[in-house]
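--- STAGE predict ---
source: upstream dedup step, 1 unique chain passed
mode: sequence only
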Amino acid sequence: MDSSNTKENKGILDDKYILLNKIGEGTSGKVYLSEEITSHNKYAIKIFNEKCIDEFERELHILQKIQNKNIIKFITNGTGSKLKHGFKSNKLDYIVLENADKGELFYFVSSVKKGFDESVSKYIFKEILYGINSLHENGYTHSDIKLDNILLDKDFNIKLSDFSFSQELKGKNGDGKLFEKKGTIGYFPPEFITQKSYNGIKSDIYSLGITLFALVTCGIPFPKKNSLLDAIKTRSYNSKLNTYKESIKYLNLSDDFFNLCFKMISLNPDDRFNNIEEILKDPWLNNDCSTLLDVLNEFSCRENHVHQEKEILNLNKQMKKEGNKKDIIFRCTEEIKTYFKNDIPIKQYKEDKNVFDKNLIILNNIQPIEFMNIILNDIEKDDEIYNKIEIDCNHDNLKAIIKFSNDDDEDENDNFESLNIEFKILIIEMKLMRMEQNDQYIINIRRKGGDLKEFNDVLSSIKNIIEEN
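--- STAGE serialize ---
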C-alpha cells in the first residue's frame, strides 16, 4: 500500500477499500471514491447512514436485479467497519459501484451557467429515458429524478444513480397506488400536494419533464419552496408555465420542445404520457438529434469549467491540510492569481457545501463603503424579493449577506412537512475586498442557497447596478 495514500485517505473500509475522498452525499448516506487494496481498481462506494437500512436494502435489490447500460453498474456490497486514525466505526452497510469518473450531469450545466442546445439535449435525454424505461419495465419507480442523480462515466455515457427513494410500481397493496412522498423541491409532482396517493410512472414522467427543462434552460419552472403550491392554490399553474416560457424567450427554443415538456408536467397526471415508450415517439426527440461525436465534443468543451470548480475546492482543502487555516484562496483562475500572492492575508472564507456559484468583478477607484451602500439600497427598492440584509464591514473587507424571500404562510409550510425536503431561500453573499497597495477591489458574489436561475437573475441586476455606478 502506498504510504502517501494512507495519509490522505478518509479511512479504510472493511479492510478492503481505501476511501480516497468524498464525491457525493445524500439523505441516505455518503459516496466515496475508493481504491480496492488488492487490485488497486477505483470504485464509488456508497456508505449508508446507520438508520437507513430500508434505503440500503431497496437500492441493493434494484441494482442487483437491473442491468442496463444507462444504470450505474453494481459491483458488490458488504457490511463492515471503517478504520480511521486507529479507531473503528460501528458496522456500516455499503454498496460498491462503478466509478462514474466525470461526475454529475448537474455540474456540466451549472458550472457553465448554460443549458445544452436542443439537438444535443435530445441525445442526452433519450439516454436518460432508456435508463428509466428499464427501471419501469422491472417494476420500479426512481422517485428522485434530477440532474444531480444522472452521472457520466469516463466516456460520457449516461448513468442513472441513487435508487434509495425507489418504490415498487404495484404499491404496497398491489393496486398501483403509492403513498410515500419523498423527492427534491422543484422536481416532485403536483399530486404530492393534491392527492393522498399517486401513480409512480406518472410521477417519474413529471420529474423527467422538469429535468429536461433544467438540461436545456439551466432553470426550472417552480424552484421556490411554495411556488408550486401557490400555483395550484391560485389556479395559475398553466399561466406560471407560460410566464416561465416568456422569461426564456431569448433562448429561441422550438414549439416542439415546449409541447413535450408541458405535456410531461401537466397538472393533471391523466394528461401526461402513459409511459416512456410514448415519450420516445414524440416528434421533438425524433428530429435533428446530434450525433454521438457532437455530444462528446460538447461535453469535452464544458469539462474545463467543471474541472476549474473542482480545482478551487481541492486547492482550499489542500491549504487546510497544510495548516493554512487563515488564508483561504477563494478563486484559482490565472487572472486572480496575478493579483494575490501566497503570503497576502485574505480574510478567511470557509467553504460551504451550499455554495454553488462564484462570480468576480474587478473594480477601480471606488469608495468601498459608499459603493456597497449604493448596491444594497438599489436592491432594497425591490420589495417583492428583498427580505433581509446583514452587513459586516471594515475598510478592507466589506461583507453583506442578502436573503431574498417573501414571508411564507404557516399553513403553506404544513403541506410540505411529510416530504422530508430541506427548503432553501435564495441567499447571496457579497464581499468587497481590497487588493494590496492599490485602489482596486474585487467584488465576490456567491450563491449560498436557493435556486440557480433566481441567483442568475439577481446577479444580472447587481451587475447592471455596478455598470451604472
